[in-house]
């Protein structure tokens, strides 16, 4: 789909004058979308960037659009901030989050969701809006860009996910593992469009299933005082599942007490590269009790858009609008 066709399908989008210079030469279509984003690149001790011209700078081996500044963080450390127009930021995000070889519709859906996410993170009273990692969205400046990623950002210029006429609270992760997670279960913040839905589209993603053995001794340091009182671990199990088959909690049955951790806490405490998703499918105490076997499906928190599922949907002919509607039921596309 070309840009005109996309705009027509997105309805009610208004053309604004082009604004190329402030984006460091990136051709963006929609001035209204060009909120300045302040991206925290580094904190603590860091090498200072070097200006190339008014709208580009070099930092380490990378080149960035926009300007840089140093700030003082709340904890007193220094921070390095890159300030640049929203779509120039998104151009540096897109191909860090999804491959430029993926279907255009999948990349456009990612652009719409990434834009919605970024606008939801604007914090005028704080010294920066987002960090340049998966804690918000991956971003490597121009080095992270691609022709295809820039095209997805441009073709969706100004388009965001809305619910009841206001910007939606969106989230996305690499692979949901077969069912997306309810934001209420993961973050205690339920939204009607961030609920668990069955997703058959990501089953062929690489690393769909995972398994790890976690030393029992690691639980103590991971969960601290909450875990300390349970005594010797007798068994570990998943509690009653939610309607979406995701466990409500991982339950540790000790000789003195029981301790339960939500899947999100379980993953965050043991490490997101060890417990790769919140969709834990099975847990078992090894004979002798020295380790716990944990297995699951997917990668990430599982809430909202599933990137690998969106890839499959795009390859099957779904539009960006179709993909957003699937992962955020009840939402619409609107204009920032
Ligand atoms: Zn999925």
Summarize the model shown.
Helix content is 26%, strand content 26%. The chain has 336 residues and is an alpha+beta fold. The protein folds into two domains: 3-170 and 304-335, no CATH class; 209-297, no CATH class.
Specify Rg, calculated over alpha carbons.
22 Å
Bound molecules: zinc ion
Q: Could you describe the largest sheet, including whether it forms a barrel?
A: 4 strands, mixed
- Provide the number of structural domains: 2
Question: For the residues shown, what is the average pLDDT?
Answer: 90
Q: Could you estimate the helical fraction of the residues in percent?
A: 25-40%
Number of strands: 18
Strand content: 25-35%
- Spatial sequence of strands, sheet with the most strands: 5-6-1-7
Provide the succession of SSEs.
HEEEEEEHHEHEEEHEHHEEEHEEEHHE
Contiguous helical run count:
10
Q: Pick out the low-confidence regions.
A: 4-21
Seen as an oligomer or otherwise, the chain set is: single chain
Q: N- to C-terminal separation? A: 21 Å
The secondary structure category is alpha+beta
The coarse silhouette is globular
């Amino acid at each position: 789909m070309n840009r005109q066709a996309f705009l027509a399908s997105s309805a009610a989008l208004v053309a604004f004058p082009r604004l190329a210079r402030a984006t460091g030469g990136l051709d963006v279509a929609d001035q209204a979308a060009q909120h300045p984003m302040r991206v925290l690149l580094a904190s603590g001790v860091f090498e200072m960037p070097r200006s190339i011209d008014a709208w580009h700078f070099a930092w380490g081996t990378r080149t960035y659009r926009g300007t840089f500044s140093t700030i003082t963080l709340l904890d007193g450390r220094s921070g390095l901030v890159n300030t640049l127009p929203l779509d120039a930021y998104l151009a540096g995000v897109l191909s860090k989050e999804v491959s430029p070889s993926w279907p255009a519709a999948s990349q456009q859906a990612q652009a719409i969701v990434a834009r919605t996410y970024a606008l939801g993170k604007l914090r005028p009273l704080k010294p920066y809006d987002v960090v340049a990692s998966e804690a918000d969205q991956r971003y490597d400046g121009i080095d992270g860009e691609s022709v295809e990623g820039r095209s997805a950002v441009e073709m969706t210029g100004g388009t965001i996910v809305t619910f009841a006429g206001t910007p939606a609270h969106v989230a996305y992760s690499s692979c949901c593992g077969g069912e997306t997670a309810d934001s209420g279960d993961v973050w205690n913040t339920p939204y009607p469009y961030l609920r668990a839905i069955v997703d058959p589209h990501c089953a062929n993603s690489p690393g769909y299933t995972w398994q790890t053995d976690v030393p029992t001794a690691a639980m103590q340091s991971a969960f601290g005082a909450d875990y300390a009182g349970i005594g010797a671990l007798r068994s570990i199990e998943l509690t009653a599942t939610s309607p979406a088959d995701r466990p409500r909690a991982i339950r540790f049955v000790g000789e003195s007490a029981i301790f339960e951790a939500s899947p999100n806490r379980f993953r965050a405490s043991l490490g997101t590269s060890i417990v790769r998703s919140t969709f834990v499918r099975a847990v078992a105490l090894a004979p002798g009790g020295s380790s716990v076997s944990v297995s699951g499906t997917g990668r990430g928190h599982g809430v909202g858009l599933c990137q690998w599922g969106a890839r499959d949907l795009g390859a099957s002919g779904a539009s960006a609008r179709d993909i957003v509607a699937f992962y955020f039921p009840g939402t619409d596309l609107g204009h920032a």
